[in-house]
Model the fold of this input.
Amino acid sequence: MKNKLKLQPLRIPSGWEVTYNTFLEIGPSNIKQDEEWLMIFTESLFQAIHKSRNILIDLGWYPEGDPKGNFGIELIKNYEWEKPLESINSKDKDEIIEKLELLMSMVEEGDIC
Done:
């Protein structure tokens, strides 16, 4: 099934370079919880870096492969993972997409530096 699924469309502003993207269109409630589910909902779903601002945005599922988990976004400056600029958790995929796109826009516009 994974090879039939498409990547989640995202509005990524200029200035961002995608490091990796395995964030699929399907949400956690729309797929049977099996081995495939474990492979889709990992800690490494999406990551991009805004090099001129030295800010990284990271999206994953935590704990990895756990149906009781949730999406997590971390906005990191200067690779200081212990001091995120923003940290957002939600099971709601639409909310995560909205927050991901909003944070990237805010960084590009200089509202978050």
Notes: The radius of gyration is 14 Å. The chain has a mean pLDDT of 91.
